[in-house]
Task: structure prediction
Amino acid sequence: MAISNIEVAETPLVLYALRRADDALVLGHRLSEWCGHAPMLEEDMALSNIALDLIGQARELYSYAAKVEDKGNDEDKLAYLRDVRQYRNLLLVEQPNGDFAQTLVRQFFYSAFADLYWRAMMTSRDTTLAAIAARSEKESAYHLRHASEWIIRFGDGTEESHKRAQVAIDHLWAFTGEMFAVDDGERALIHAGVAIDPGTLRGRWLTTLSEVASEAMLTLPQNDWMQQGGRSGRHSEHLGHLLSELQSMQRTFPGLTW
Amino acid sequence: MYTQALNTAETDDRGLEDAGKAAQFQARIDAEERIEPNDWMLAAYRKTLTRQISQHAHSEIVGMLPEGNWITRAPTLRRKAALLAKVQDECGHGLYLYAAAETLGTSREELIDAMLAGKAKYSSIFNYPTLTWADIGTIGWLVDGAAIMNQIPLCRCSYGPYARAMIRVCKEESFHQRQGYEIMVTLCRGSDEQKAMAQDALNRWWWPVLMMFGPPDATSQHSDTSTKWKIKRFSNDELRQKFVDATVPQAHYLGLTIPDPGMTQDAEGHWRYSEIDWAEFKHVLAGNGPCNRDRMAARRKAHEEGAWVREAAAAYAAKRARRPTAQAAE
Result:
């Protein structure tokens, strides 16, 4: 007997926390796939560390979403018992690891945003979100530094590394627009001072990217067509496979304590 | 995680070296002084330690694979974070140990190349597969438990950098062992299916874990030299017995059965185990364990696919070194 998906009462605040939790969990899961397989031991350590930070953020955000929802869900039910269509993460974070350049470009795009986002969220009127932001901001600043250093090494390293980084930038660019999009529910939270408007961060995000790309001698795409859908559960095909692995124990052995 | 006691010491070559220095070296060891990287040491002592420490490092790194196999499938977020942190610790142990081995004059790259070429060993326990979540609990409980038994005496090893690395490693291993046992406690308090999963894991890991302590003393070669140099402080059989005596009551507490129907407790309270199948041990060491090929293939793949990354990092560092003004401007 497979356990069915839980239902989540997605009020604007629950959905808001859930979306950020899913971003952190899915990206943390992706990074954890490198553990034991990275190009050097220092990167096995670093990617695991970043994955641990992100999984930690996800746990706090899920717990908060469950508390606000108050329907008996918890961090594990939210992570393990929602299907693809119920996941609310950005398309960017579910993209496969690819080569090391693709993993680091994905991380660079996300961390450059997360660093600004969490710093801004420290002023949220929601004290729990502000507290999560204070911790996540410190972590994101390190994640951004780590990714930026690699982008520069790739760009200014060898011909091959330059090429791989440019391919990854061109491939992942279309997934970055979603970070700055806002729907009606979020607009109300922004108005109430609970959330911040991510659109206001885009200029600074682009500045960070441009500075690093320039030092790395890499080119940011001019293409402004952006993929959307993750926030409302319309994902790429990749997420289903990630979830089938992530959730396999809870789906195979429903309702047990581990 | 751990290297097993299959390390054999080089033959004592003091006759070929300065007899006075050799005597002084042994006197320092006898006085429980620590030998440090720049101190004079016997060539055979250096070679023995380089081999033992590097095999230990390789074991930590290869040991990331069987547990890493469950990071993406851990059953809860708490378990996922704990397992990821644990495997990351093993990687850290590998790094300290390569650094300790490098103090003896061989680079990490050379040591890793020897492992990838199949010329250096790693602990045979990692050539067994992790099939269920209970294997993650069992590895923490038994494999890390055996590692602690072996490594605590190494904290007093005569070679300073190795002894100091072991102090830090043992603290973390002790945490891992408790974490593994806690997984087992949870399973054994769970459903019948979970208990069966725990018993099945114990059945599969018990004998390979006993083999981790290395061949029986009667057949073990050269351990006299390692003992004389205070690299090794207890024999394989002594450590194995200590481990069995500590572990049997833990299995009883869990309500699990040790898969050794011939096991008895003697008058002194020691749990006497049946004959170990050393033929299996030799097969696994010879490369015929269930996962030897997979483990080496995974390590080689990571190394080969990461080559362009290491080349890029080296090329960038070299360019930076040639651009002093750019650096000064930062």
